[in-house]
Design goal:
The protein has helices spanning 4-13, 19-36, 59-64, 77-91, 95-112, 129-138, 161-165, 176-184, 226-244, 262-270, 294-300, 335-343, 361-366, and strands at 52-55, 69-70, 119-122, 144-148, 169-173, 192-194, 211-215, 249-253, 274-276, 286-289, 304-308, 327-329. Strand 10, helix 11 (294-300) and strand 11 (304-308) form a beta-alpha-beta unit. It is an alpha/beta fold and 371 residues long. It is built from 13 helices and 12 strands. The protein is globular, with a radius of gyration of 22 Å. The strands form 2 sheets. A 6-stranded parallel beta sheet has the order 2-1-3-4-5-6. The chain has a 6-stranded parallel beta sheet with strand order 9-8-7-10-11-12, sandwiched between helices. The two termini are 29 Å apart.
Length: 371
């Protein structure tokens, strides 16, 4: 049984202390509960006898652990039922119902993950994470929950609370600097492993096209004013490039999880910027963004990169220029200097302490199952 204190921490840790996160996650939970209310009634108990599982795996991680069981909750009715009760507990304003529902969901998880010495590899945020970590710990064997870095974190990133306090949880990061940050916040160094990123293997030669890609961000989910500042800065940079450079084609890659923004789309259209849903980064010579990991991925495939500094953004965003060949643009008055600098680059670079990049990254991840 899990107590009220654990349940409260399990739910709150996923909200990151940000009111807009809490609001959005509760909206998602309500929709899930309403959608699945009738579906779960006739779901029969089910046990899973596998020993290695993937939760929200990235494509490269799926390839590395090809024999692992993928936890696709939408196609696993009994696991979906467990999630239903955990989400029901999350949205319930009544403490007794919250504790009852969370325990019911947790008991279903314990029934489902039947094997001893299991390994769960997680590559993305999930409300199930703190419950699965407790499940691994309760088995009192070598069961382990790996939470793998799934994007470029800021150097002051704070891990989830369950990463600190549970011996069954191991944190896999791509940066020695990030590992040191975890340790400075109180995490035991033995719980952290620094492995190469699986985003890419090498840093390519610079591209020679004259195309510019502007990266769409999903920040408007937590800050509705983000798009206003972002579109203003995009407009300033694009106008400069059109008048003072050889860049002659401009595109915008929509973020799949961003909220619709008619104002942003109108601003892009007014500046002859074409909106795309799919891209090939190697087609572009210059990338412009603010937060997205895509800036680092673009750097690796040979794009020059400008990071726009967002003054009104409520979450601290790191300056990638401190660790890479990305140029950080704080003021439009610096635009000539920044563009001249990236145009004179011989090759992009990344500080290996900021991001570990190795050609044979698969070998390191496979060793997780040998521990």
């Amino acid at each position: 049984m899990i107590d009220e204190n654990f349940i409260a921490k399990a739910y709150s840790t996923m909200e990151r202390g940000i009111p807009d996160f809490r609001k959005r996650k509760r909206q998602i939970a309500r929709r899930f509960v309403l959608k699945n209310f009738l579906n779960i009634i006739f779901v029969k108990p089910e046990k899973n006898y596998n020993s290695v599982f993937l939760l929200h795996p990235k494509l490269e991680v799926q390839k590395i652990f090809a024999d692992a069981f993928k936890l696709d909750i939408n196609s696993l009715p009994f696991l979906n039922k467990a999630l239903f009760y955990i989400q029901l507990g999350y949205i319930s304003p009544n403490t007794r119902i919250r504790v009852w529902a969370a325990n019911k969901g947790f008991n279903y998880l314990q029934y489902y993950f039947n094997s001893s010495n299991i390994t769960i590899i997680n590559c993305g945020p999930s409300i199930l994470s703190p419950f699965l970590v407790r499940l691994c710990e309760n088995k009192k064997d070598s069961s382990t929950y790996y939470i793998i870095q799934h994007g470029l974190y800021q150097m002051d990133y704070k891990p989830y609370e369950f990463e600190f306090n549970n011996i069954a949880c191991k944190s896999v990061v791509w940066s020695e600097l990030l590992a040191q940050n975890y340790i400075s916040q109180g995490m035991d160094a033995q719980k952290i492993q620094v492995l190469p990123t699986h985003l890419f293997r090498t840093i390519n030669e610079l591209n020679k096209s004259k195309k510019v890609l502007i990266i769409g961000e999903s920040i408007n989910k937590i800050n509705k004013n983000f798009d206003i500042e972002y579109q203003q800065k995009i407009k300033q940079v694009v106008q400069y490039l059109k008048q003072n450079s050889d860049y002659n084609e401009f595109y915008f890659k929509k973020h799949p999880r961003a909220l619709p923004s008619l104002q942003l789309e109108m601003a892009l259209a007014d500046n002859s910027i074409k909106i795309l849903n799919k891209i090939n980064l190697s087609d572009y010579s210059l990338l412009i963004g603010a937060v997205s990991t895509l800036m680092i991925e673009g750097l690796a495939v040979g794009c020059r990169v400008i990071q726009l500094s967002m003054e009104k953004f409520q979450i601290n965003v790191g300056d990638y220029s401190l660790y890479t060949s990305i140029e950080n643009l704080r003021d439009i008055k610096e635009i000539k200097e920044k563009i001249d600098r990236i145009n004179n680059l011989k090759k992009n670079y990344i500080n290996p302490e900021f991001l570990r990049v190795e050609d044979n990254f698969e070998d390191y991840y496979k060793k997780l199952l040998e521990q």
